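Run proline--tRNA ligase through structure prediction, thanks.
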Amino acid sequence: MAMSVQSTEGKRALGSTSDENSVVLKSSSTPVRVNGQSSLQKEIKKETRLGISTKKDEDFGKWYSEVCRCGDMLDYYDIKGCYILKPPAVKVWGILRAFFDAEIEKMGVEEYYFPLFVSPSCLEKEKDHIKGFSPEVAWVTRAGESELSIPIAVRPTSETVIYPYFSKWIRGHRDLPLKINQWVNVVRWEFSDPIPFIRSREFLWQEGHTAFATKTEADKEVFDILQIYSDIYEKLLAVPVIKGIKSENEKFAGGLYTATVEAFIPSSGRGIQAATSHSLGQNFAEIFGISFENKERKLEKKETKRSLVWQNSWGISTRSIGVMVMTHGDDKGLVFPPLVAPVQVVVIPVPFNGFDVNIIYEACEAVKSTLLAAGIRAKSDNRDTYACGWKYADWEQKGVPLRIEIGPRDLAKNQVRIVRRDNGAKADLPRGDLIEQVKDMLGKIQQSLFDAAKRGKDACTQKVENWDDFMEALSQKKLILAPWCDEVEVEKLVKERTKTETGAGAKTLCTPLEQPDLNEDTLCFASGKPAKKWSYWGRSY
Ligand code: 86X
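Sure, done. The structure for proline--tRNA ligase is below.
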């Protein structure tokens, strides 16, 4: 099958290897072509030996892609904006998925799988919101040599795939609420520069789609889901987020309002939408004819007994993994919060000249087994082709929260040496209460990563009340909290006035649910009109 992408100029074939799609595997030093196999292998070896060549505060973008690759989270692919997710990334995604599934199951959400393809007639039913997105929709136009009589779209999101079936499945009030979720890939043919996990043309997400008889029930769910997203970030990924509501400009145009969790990356001074939960109101119900026989209307003997359903949709994507990497990674590489770490503890033998290495290996295996039996994700590294110093750096790069070293002296004392990835602190632990100590340390690392990230975010947050202070804070890459009149035109103006040669202007990230006090006479920082609320502003991904 061939795929084409509808761009604003029309449909463009992407079958051949155009410049756009050719790829070089970037490394710390020289770029290497994919087909230059032997030199590529050499380069990769050199790369892992050298580790991260860029510092986080020197060139954040370069640092980030190096950390993703050296930490073994992903690799580049020969189609621009597409990435190979490697086992550590897939593992984290699986952990987030298991947590989220358990939470939504309690809410009565059921898992489905809908097809990848969308018929043009369904896709175009929802003209208004599709309009702005249509340049990003990828189309299948050919099967083998023959052109399809009707091209088929690849889902960029599944409203138009799912809602025709909501209309078929929902008849009476007994069919409500209907709560479905699916874990799928989606494709959006972005034209701005891709960033691993953060902005890729294909990504993984869950999308939840629900329908209720009443707005009250639907509204409650929007915020129940938002809380789960907040928990995923704060409790699992140890990333502080702000719960809030998107502005009219930034909300999903197809709905009533968009609730969001927003993260902030101090190193780049940019906000990032971390997950969203939309109240769709009855807009889609109207378009797709999703209605139910309303028993109350029947009792009231109303003319028509049918009512439109109230809908929500909500999603979190693999972008969350990128936010975690950006937040906790350091100059040595990845730093995993223990709760999502694919490997929580690595056990490394420290051989000593003249001491039987097999005895050390056996001790490492025994410690690993004890940890595994206690439900701790542990690994031992008995590769005899690498020195232990090299292994330390390797596992640091991969972000493992705790390293246990075992050498002859530790054996003699029936202890192990343990080293924290986040702060480098070392301790000697008696083998006897190892499990208890390790669990305790993992808990402390989890908390301390969150605390450090929270301090970092708070240090970048600035309250301003006038334009000059706003511009000053923006130039300092701050996350800005400002009183706002809540007018669409004012946000557009701010965006326009803060545009740079290289990038987009500043915009609202959200209006936080938790509002500071607002004096009656407080004015909008941008328009000078009476302020209606405090909102977060900044540049964003
Ligand atoms: C908006 C809305 C919503 C379910 C979520 O944010 C969570 C999960 N969906 C998604 N959106 C689009 O509707 C959209 C549509 C097209 Cl055609 C597109 F190419 C890109 C899109 N991006 C976002």
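The pocket of 86X is lined by residues 129-130, 133, 136-137, 156-157, 159, 188, 207, 252, 276, 278, 313-315 (CB under 6 Å).
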